[in-house]
């Protein structure tokens, strides 16, 4: 390993390490184990590289491409002209920038080479280079904090002569193709693989026709040279599966048949009249099927990715009422679940009823389009009763990259139904995921088809049971929700005020609103948020910009039929005396680091500044600076395009982040996303950057060209507090402590 870049300039999106083949034979890098170990943890992380052959005397760059950027982005960042063969992209494992870390390459458990670095070795945008070891496997540090040179070596980094390795043969694969399979049945693939190397690695690669990438599973060695792998039954859905086998040793790779001409398995539905019942037990199970064990609501289709580029304006999911009664959706709560982090976001749907065995389409109408546009998009003729638009402020939109799920729970917080999806289950052509009801007693929907053509409002008969769940007729609810609340008596001027309440109902999960007003104004309504883990807990925040005098408030809750409300309460606001002449002339007033995606990155991140003077200010004398953590030495200047816009007195200017994925978006798209009316190069300008981090401490500074920092807005700077929420702004007020640090 000849070079490591642990901490790049753009949100670590260009970190990499470099590997050189110091032998006279080709090396299959994916044959080896590459591990990351940090002193901050006791374990290690294993990196799985894609199939990569490194020729003798050649160098390859392993790029931590967490932003799923292109090779052009990498070359532009480093001023290189590397090809896709010279740069391997990987994701999921990042460098530690605050502890000692070691990268090791091993053959089984034997270390071949390692490279280490510590916090003192790291500088933003600088690399470490290494010399070959004379007596051990640990690379020797050559130079620290150097200008990055991915793909290039100094002669002294490598020996004069390479290691001589004896020539060997490639593995030979013999396998009888599998051509047919039944839906929801395990598919077994067997192969005989001859190779002189006993530590051979064999993998089965498979995908559904139309998927962009293959999934892989290790083939286990049964005896001698016999290998075996299975495609699990839950992944065997109607369609055609393409597969091939790959066998790899240290220096050779064999593929059967080939990636471009794979074997094809046709997966068919088992026709009921042709189905063979082999045992008395199976026959009895079919006769005694308990339809009442199935979920009362079924998620039958999810569309995370609208066909074409740009913002996804036609995402939807489909619900089916699997009961004999009309169901009220106000009796349930809906959760958007992150399967890779266990994060939950509760969101609201309109209070509608769904009739027995009826299908409704819930359209995330973030573009505020008309129903005609939806029907035109999908060549349908659905009515307003069949398509229910929603635009919940808490729902971030479906992630195209997958690892997400929809969960529906009842008012007792019991899970009713669950449906998840992966990135490879959908694509930019608008393909969707279709589900069928769980065959066993469970709540998890089974995937019926992935990369399927969208069919909003239409459900295949195999997706739902032949009989619906029998539920008793609902009694009329005459009991209003019960609100328990402790009054908030005091607040600080221009600081947000949190209002909390416990709200319970005998039948449903109520919706609740806070009504708040100033002395001589009308009440405004603020919806209260529900805790997904404890749905009786409600919270809402009165924005700081509304807190400039004493406030009166009350809480109202409804179960859709009955209402209840608290008495009116008064909050005494402590007014601060501010020396306005001591405040900064330019203030950072809002930051939005996480927004609706365009392509695979945030499309509408922005920074807002305010001219806090009585005179216009020309931006040409100032720049935005992006700070990693709270260290001023890490600042990166973000110039705007254009940079000579004049900000009128007491007016704002918005800086829109252009990250390579949203280059084709217009200010009209920006305005549509936020319902704003900004004018390009007048009150909105662009900044070309990879964007703002969501999970780390960052600072946004407006500073003069000579380095005077007028105001600083930090986020994620308080331990265990995550300020970043999808499609939500972090709003700041002026500092009152005679510093230049804005207050959230």
Question: pLDDT average, as an integer?
Answer: 89
- The percent range for helix content is under 10%
Number of strands: 57
Instruction: Tell me the CATH architecture of the largest domain.
Output: Sandwich
Major sheet: arrangement of strands? 8-7-2-1-11-12
Overall geometric form: globular
Low-confidence stretches: 272-285
Q: How many distinct folded domains?
A: 5
Q: Using the coordinates above, name the CATH class of the largest domain.
A: Mainly Beta
CATH topology of the largest domain, what is it called? Answer: Immunoglobulin-like
The biggest beta sheet, please? 6 strands, mixed
3D structure, described in words:
There is one protein chain. The chain has 744 residues and is mainly β. It has five domains: 3-157, Lamin Tail domain (Immunoglobulin-like, Sandwich), CATH 2.60.40; 172-268, Sandwich (Immunoglobulin-like), CATH 2.60.40.10; 318-463, no CATH class; 482-574, Immunoglobulins (Immunoglobulin-like); 580-731, Immunoglobulin-like. The chain has a six-stranded mixed sheet with strand order 8-7-2-1-11-12, with no helix packed on it. Strands 14, 16, 17, 20, 21 and 22 form a six-stranded mixed sheet that branches. A six-stranded mixed sheet has the order 30-29-24-23-33-34, with no helix packed on it. Mean pLDDT is 89; it is low at 272-285. It starts with a strand and ends in a 13-residue tail after the last strand. The longest helix has 8 residues, at 71-78. 4% of the residues lie in helices and 40% in strands. It contains four helices and 57 strands.
